[in-house]
Amino acid sequence: xxxxSLEIPAIHFDENGELIIIASESSSKDDFDFFQGKSVIRxxxxxxxxxxxxxxxxxxxxxEMYKILNGIGNIDNFLATFxxxxxxxxxxxLFNPKTKLWSIYWADSxxxxxxxxxxxxxxxxxxxxFSKDVFEGKNVIQVxxxxxxxxxxxxxxxxxxxxxxxxxxxxWFMYMSKTN
Length: 180
Known about the structure:
This is DUF1579 domain-containing protein. Helix content is 0%, strand content 56%.
């Protein structure tokens, strides 16, 4: 199921096919302050990607985020249970004061490696972070979208495009509620 229901800014490529990502004017090291502390999360994840599926898996998780590197970075721990087994994920977010871009790295207890970062910035409390990637042998572009307009109940979502950003398939939503 491909959808454009959540607005994604236009993406641009250079002559070598690399993504061009430019920070918003308002981008700052404080963009993720809303997420600091503990949250409980209701996850809604597409069961099968790029299969015209609209079957979703829902599960609970928790997350805790804290700042690092004198405020130009943060780390969070994501805890869930999949198929009766404990699962742990970790996100490292780093803000480059020169480019005003955030780089977001993910690692989990399944792979033990850092994924390529998604890169971007916030504008009006909504952030978009992009990367080129490969999913099941397909070249894709992925986007993470952070909606912090309700700072006590932010929403993270992920979409992928297999046609250079013309169409997007949303495959994961995380509805967060702050616990402190």
